[in-house]
Amino acid sequence: MKNLDLKKVKIYTDGACSGNPGPGGWGAILFYKSNKLEIKGANALTTNNIMELTAALEALKLLKEPCEVELYSDSAYLINAFNEGWVNKWQLNGFKNAKNKTIENIELWKKLIDLNAYHKIEWIKVKGHSDNIYNNRCDELARMGYENL
Fold first, then answer.
1. Pairing label, strands 7-17, 67-73
2. Whole-structure pTM over 0.90, yes or no?
3. Active-site residue identified among 27, 41, 74, 145
4. What's the 3-state SS for 70-86?
5. What are 108-135's pLDDT values in tens digits?
6. Residue pair 119/60 in contact by the 8 Å Cβ criterion
7. Mean pLDDT of 45-49
8. Angstrom distance (rounded) from CA 6 to CA 13
9. Residue 52 among the catalytic residues
10. How confident is the model at residue 98 (pLDDT cuts 50, 70, 90)?
């Protein structure tokens, strides 16, 4: 399938935690053509990084076929892992970090790596808590998630 045939989707994601670890939530907004879908979730005891990864994972899991995705997040942890090649190094090293320790959140990373291979994803860093209305809305969804536990 040519890239021109792929559906183009924009996704904004964010995760939040009250304490780290503590109760946390995630939020995402998916855009396809004129359609917009907001999703959110929460966990009673989690970390901010887990919520950031979960937001991206849950949004990508909703796509029923390979898509061309622009995924926006304020998480350097998430975006840099793909853009700086960390995930490639982890895979080559058996998911061990530079200190030869198993990377944190390995199961989430493996699922994201699989989805990254399935879709054509551009991982885009945005400034958090700034003037990006969709990132701000995702933060609001994430906070709503854990505040409603």
1. parallel
2. yes
3. 74
4. EEEECCHHHHHHHHCCH
5. 999 999 999 999 999 999 999 899 999 9
6. yes
7. 97
8. 21
9. yes
10. confident
What percent of the chain is predicted at pLDDT more than 90?
91
Q: What share of the chain is helix, strand, coil (3-state, %, to 5)?
A: 40, 35, 25
Candidate list 114, 122, 129, 147, residue with the active-site label: 129
pLDDT of residue 2: 54
Q: How far apart are CA 67 and CA 125, in angstroms?
A: 19
- The residue with tokens 């701000």 is 136
Q: Is 104 marked active-site?
A: no
From the list 46, 54, 47, the residue with the least C-alpha distance to 14 is 54
Instruction: Say whether 122 is catalytic.
Output: no
Residue 48 near residue 55 (C-beta atoms within 8 A): no
Residue 119 backbone dihedrals phi, psi, to 5 degrees: -105, 165
Candidates 25, 41, 139, 145; catalytic one? 139
Instruction: Let me know if 27 is a catalytic residue.
Output: no
Which of 98-102, 137-141, 142-146 is predicted least confidently? 98-102
34 token code pair: 């004129």
By three-state DSSP, how is residue 139 classified?
helix
